[in-house]
Design brief:
Keywords: Metal-binding, Zinc. Pfam families: SGL. This is Gluconolactonase. GO terms for molecular function: metal ion binding. With about 325 residues, the chain is mostly beta strands. It has a single domain, classed as TolB, C-terminal domain (Neuraminidase, 6 Propeller), CATH 2.120.10. It contains no helices and 29 strands. Strands 18, 19, 20, 21 and 22 form a five-stranded antiparallel beta sheet that branches. A four-stranded antiparallel beta sheet has the order 1-29-28-27, with no helix packed on it. A four-stranded antiparallel beta sheet has the order 2-3-4-5, with no helix packed on it. The protein is globular.
Length: about 325
Amino acid sequence: MMTFSVLATGLMFPEGPVVLPGGDVLVVEIHRGTLTRITPDGGVSVVAEVGGGPNGAALGPDGRIYIANCGGLQRFEVGGYIFAGGIPEDYEGGSIQAVDLGTGEVETIYKTAGDVPLRGPNDIVFDAAGGFYFTDYGKSDGVTGDRGRLYYATPDGASIRMIAAGMEGPNGIGLSPDGARLYVSETMTARVWWWDVTGPGQITGGKSLGGSGGGNFLYSPSEFINFDSLGVEASGNVCVASMVRPGISVIGPDGDLVEFVDIDTDGDPGITNICWGGKDMKTAYITASSTGKLLKMDWPRPGALLNFASEASK
């Protein structure tokens, strides 16, 4: 078990950490409906009120933060820990938003893809061409539920299209360091899938019979676990945050488990995201959502530098 420090507490189900060039870290708070800034000394301030349920975030080519907003999730408590799920009474649909870090101005970029409403956008990643991939987890009332989808869109609001469908709760999304592979983690199946990227928004799978969304199977653990979001190391390893057994599964691009990093912070069962920062990209920031914390730890390997990671306005 690696050691870590607690950088911030009191967050309301934080997800989607993004490290800014100056060392601040942004998170979204699902149950607060905010984009929130955390300084290196642990100071917490709200950048923008985005409403709904902000679930994932990424820096875009224009310096704005793009948010995958699931439209909101119900807050519930089990054993003293906070969780998120279901459909809240004020749900009005999902969206992709953009936030100006200087002014806090929030713009809604997409609410639909053609005639198809966005149901529960979850996580987002930009490619080198300036477009972005995002997962739509969908919504469930506990009896019936949506099948998940993947989308590719441009930040100018001019183009969005579905590129995969029929998935079981697609959650985390990431690109290999060379941009040649797209990775997606599914929550309840605890499976990781991948596709070859043949061009901006062009993906090819089909190497696994019946693969979710047509994807290629990469990894699933033998034990019961729920996967959440993911990050990618500079080496190409895929790091998937997990609930039930809280920690990070480090998976090689060949599908082998490199290691499992157990993370115990007051028994929090909801480790949901990982990202990296620092001069050597070996400082990991991890969200412990069920106790409302942002953790910081030294990571043994550097994370991959994300596209447009230096584009943020101050």
